[in-house]
Amino acid sequence: MRKPFALRKLLTMRKLLTFVLILLMTLQFASCKKNNDIPESPEPTSYNPTVVDNTSTSKGKAENNSGNNNETANDLMSDTAAQLGITHQDYPRIDGSTSTLAIVQAINRAMYKSDNNENFPEAASKTVPSYKLLINGEVDMIIVPYASSDVLALAEEAGVELEFYPIAAEALVFITPKENTAENITMEQARKIYIDYGITNWLELNGPDRELVPICRNSDSGSQSQMDNLILKGEKMHSRIQENYVELTMEGMLEQVAFYHQGGLFGKPTRSYALGYTLYTYLKSMGEITGIDKELKMLAFEGVVPSEQSIADGSYSLADAYYAVVRSDLPKEHSARKIIGWLKSYDGKAIIKELGLIPKE
Question: How many helices (H) and strands (E) does the chain have?
């Protein structure tokens, strides 16, 4: 007996569903078996990051290699350094005063092919701090004015002997505004002003009837070391000057002296002219850069005008020098000593002269 159409249709649908279910189970079983035969793979996201990381790493290596090449190129030594036997690895640690930074930089430029080398000095520690670094063994050589008595005492207390090699002539000069009619200052007058604060009017220096305002430098500056050595000679500067008229930078000293009588940025002009001091070659070099020397005049000292000639021949009595200073226990074969020898050579003196300095014999 034939089954009704509806029933036959239902049975056909059941068979079809059963077949599909069996097929799905078979495929799932085969898939599971296949997966069990294959070792576990990394996390699903690992592939793409691996590709990215490889690309990134390759690029990074290329950049690093390029950087290493640049660094190597920047640190290549000059023919001069090669002749002296100085390498990048044994290049000396050199410091100094603000006024000698140009010398320290010129030494570096003479020894390296690029200013981008890692030993190129961008700033100086200043005179007294650089002496302390040398005494403590933190630098190999410094280029500075001669040490003050306080610095020499520090070295003695530390049991350190210093060696001084003059490389360029320098001089302490007294400065005042160009409008000031005074022309000369004597040792006696300078000492009376800065030790006793005993002269307060320019009339005593054959100048105008105006207040004399003595500007001084901070104790760790190079020009103050020269002032201590050449003028004060172990005596203390008057406390009123140190408390009221101290200038902390070399450039600031020039500006203070030039414009003090104008009363400053928001002040009123006063019936005064300032007296200050600086280093001859520093004033000349700053004049070329800023033109500040046009606002100032250098006073003659004991009747002798400071000039390249009078400083070189010694007739200007406040002449001294910039020194290359090392510790006496520095090994004889040290690269710093090789550079000192070079500074005393014809080529080294030529570099000193190019800087506007006067080479020392």
Answer: 14, 12
Task: Tell me which amino acid residue 35 is.
Answer: N
pLDDT for the residue 24: 53
Encoded tokens for 53: 């990381």
Q: What is the mean pLDDT of each run of 10 residues along the chain (361 residues)?
A: 36 46 49 39 30 33 39 87 97 95 97 96 95 98 94 97 96 97 98 98 98 94 92 95 94 96 83 96 92 97 96 93 97 98 96 92 75
Per-residue pLDDT, 110: 98
211 forms beta bridges with: 201, 272
- By residue count, the chain amounts to 361
Given a contact cutoff of 8 angstroms between Cβ atoms, the answer to whether 225 and 145 are in contact is: yes
Residue 59: CB atoms within 10 Å: 10
Which residue's entry shows tokens 């002003």? 193
H or E stretch at 177: strand 162-177
* pLDDT value for 90: 97
Please name which of 293, 350, 359, 331 lies closest in space to residue 137, comparing C-alpha atoms: 331
CATH of 79-168+321-359, one of 3.40.50.720, 3.40.50.300, 3.40.190.10, 3.40.30.10: 3.40.190.10
Neighbours of 181 (CB within 10 A): 13
Look at the domain 171-320 and name its fold. D-Maltodextrin-Binding Protein; domain 2 (3.40.190)
pLDDT of the residue at 265: 60
The H-or-E segment that residue 213 falls in is strand 211-214
Instruction: Report how far residue 96's alpha carbon sits from residue 325's, in angstroms, rounded to the nearest whole number.
Output: 9
Residue 312 · residue 169 · CB < 8 Å: yes
CB-CB contact of 220 with 179 (8 Å): no
